[in-house]
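quick one, 287 residues, struct below
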Amino acid sequence: MKKTIIAILVFCTALLTFPTAPVQAQNSEVGACVGTMFYLGDLNPKKLFAQPHVAAGLVYRYNISPRWAIKADFMFGKVSASDSLTNNGYARNLSFSSPITEFSVVGELNFFQLYTSTGKNHFAPYIFAGVTVFSFNPMTEYNNETYELQSLGTEGQGLNDMPKKYSLTHFALPFGIGFRFNIGRYVSLGAEWSFRYTFTDYLDDVGGTYYDNELLREQRGDIIANLADRSPELTDPDGNPLPLHQAGEQRGNPTTHDLYSFAGATLTVKFGNSDRTCELKKKRKKY
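---
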């Protein structure tokens, strides 16, 4: 993962230092994207597209050249996971869902030069990377009620010498691949698949160890204690409830951060002056 982050930083540096000569006049695009969003983390460590949800947003792209572009998007989506559905093999019985609101800025590098002019190349695969700021709010269902988990401190956050409650706004590094196809001068269709490597392990409210359940019950009440350790809702082969976890037992993997992914399609419309993307060099005057 460290190599991935280094590669992303190199990519962004190259984008910022790349010459931005005005080789096309019709260089702005606006449109929308729609697709599916899913999560990878403690409650779903491996399964791609597990429990997917619809995501959609707005897109703006600035075409620097036929090879390079900068894209900004504002997107809404949702992620969720459950031990019971992903078959993790853990007797935690934990689950969550969280809305996602994000704003991203990425640099795109086309493998082929991409034009809108007649007789020029109209399609290109591309790679991209950049930066995302996003908000989330993990929730769960218990006794037909919905509870926002961050405020509850299910791992003892905010008690005694425990860390404070985690933030619901974080940065992430988006990276992925895509494909664009220009239809005439003004319309562009695309498809892409990307991951957001977040800098939090609490997208799912699971990241550390179990707090002493009795102390949690004394200081924060029965509901929070029950949500912190839901193992007794499960039974062993004899039909007996599973025991509570001991304080300090692993609840999640604190050495890894969570990820979420978006896969979908984009439709954008170009605007500006008349297109001159094929005029890479000025024509010489005839005398």
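The mean pLDDT is 87.
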